[in-house]
Write a structure and sequence with these properties.
Length: 395
């Protein structure tokens, strides 16, 4: 998503400027070409050398630098940028941008660019809450700029309040969402399920599975990056929901069914990546069951069929995690569930299936055509799935 993108990172006068180092590093690792503009005030908190070392490119500081790599730096930087991220953005810089001042290289560049602009404010909570700051921020949003944060936390002043700059991962998520807002899924609503449901035996134990939720979360992230509005119905996982995605937390198969049915109202695509338990305990004990010397029998009952409960015309994509006869079992599930596509993976294969960051899948459509993909990151697998969903929506 960020590979080959030209991103300007503006760093202004805030103690949070040290966080820009992590942002520049992560943008560069993601394949972006990063040009840093460091204001005079920003240079009081972080050095040009630190940022240059992380980006591998010159750091721009002075409007009148005759030694700059680019002639008329602000015009050339502005012209070739795919996006501008100002992190941190101080109260002073918000005022400059809102009122069109052109007294430093960063504000000049923003005035000259047609690229989307992302702002990550950072300042003392009293400054952030001031009417002038709020008016400036509202004006910039009205003009089409995007703002992310700040968040509540301990501030440099020692106070606790809203003013901390969000982390680099949140900024990256917001940037990718901003760049993808005109993508091929713009205006579409997708519902994605993820994780493994937990069916309680008693207040301590449950029947579950090994699903990490990584595949479903990657699909939600990829759909967001293509402009979709995404509802992520997730069983318990050790993951943070992607920025800009609506998270609906559930535990049991029954709760997931109810949430999926509710979210599918007005949706156009349902992707069931969750590993839903097929059975639940027939009865849940109100108190912890004590360990007994003799064996204990657990009576099970079937869980609800979520796909059967979803009504309306949607593109439906299912998943089949199999340990044998991969294509045969997945094709039977596709036909039985009335799916447009099914994504099958062999959970016994190395680097594929539960808990891994990669996956090797076979995608089968209604005609029976099966395509086996090479081992890919789960995000790339998600993109390949969505590549097949888009034509189905158009048809």
């Amino acid at each position: 998503m960020l590979e080959g993108k030209r991103v300007i990172v503006g760093v202004t006068g805030s103690i949070a400027a040290y966080k820009a180092a992590d942002l520049v590093s992560k943008l560069t690792q993601a394949g972006a070409e990063v040009d840093v503009i460091l204001t005079e005030a920003g240079a009081q908190f972080i050095t040009p050398m630190a940022l240059r070392s992380l980006s591998g490119r010159p750091v721009y500081t002075d409007i009148f630098d005759l030694k700059a790599e680019l002639a008329i730096s602000h015009v050339e930087l502005a012209r070739r940028a795919d996006a501008v991220v100002i992190a941190p953005v101080s109260a002073t810089t918000l005022a400059r941008l809102a009122h069109g001042f052109a007294d430093n290289l960063l504000s000049l560049t923003v005035l000259a660019t047609q690229a989307p602009v992302l702002l990550a404010p950072a300042m003392d909570s009293q400054m952030y809450e001031n009417a002038a700051t709020q008016a400036n921020l509202a004006l910039l949003k009205e003009r089409g700029m995007t703002a992310v944060g700040p968040v509540e936390g301990r501030l440099a002043s020692g106070r606790v309040g809203r003013g901390r700059m969000v982390g680099a991962d949140v900024i990256l998520g917001a940037l990718r969402q901003m760049l993808g807002r005109n993508g091929d899924l713009a205006g579409r609503k997708l519902v994605v399920s993820a994780g493994g449901t937990q069916e309680p035996i008693d207040p301590v134990r449950y029947v579950g599975n090994y699903s990490s939720g990584k595949m479903g979360y990657a699909i939600a992230e990829a759909a967001r990056d293509r402009g979709a509005k995404v509802a992520l119905v997730s069983a318990p996982v050790a993951l943070t929901a992607p920025y800009g995605v609506e998270l609906v937390a559930v535990k049991t198969a029954e709760e997931m069914r109810d949430a999926v049915v509710a979210q599918c109202a007005g949706a156009e695509v349902l992707i069931m990546a969750a590993a839903v338990a097929d059975y639940r305990p027939a009865a849940t004990a109100a108190q912890k069951i004590k360990r007994a010397k003799a064996g204990r029998t657990l009576e099970l009952a079937p869980t609800p069929d979520i796909l059967a409960a979803v009504k309306g015309k949607l593109v439906r994509v299912g998943f089949a995690a199999e340990s044998e006869e991969l294509v045969k079992n997945a094709a039977a599930k596709l036909a039985g569930k009335g799916l447009e596509l099914i994504v099958a993976n062999d959970i016994t294969a190395p680097d594929s299936g539960f808990g891994t960051d990669t996956n090797q899948v076979t995608i089968i459509d209604k005609s029976g055509k099966a395509e086996t993909l090479p081992l890919l990151s789960k995000y790339e697998v998600a993109q390949r799935i969505l590549d097949r969903v888009v034509p189905l929506l158009k048809s």
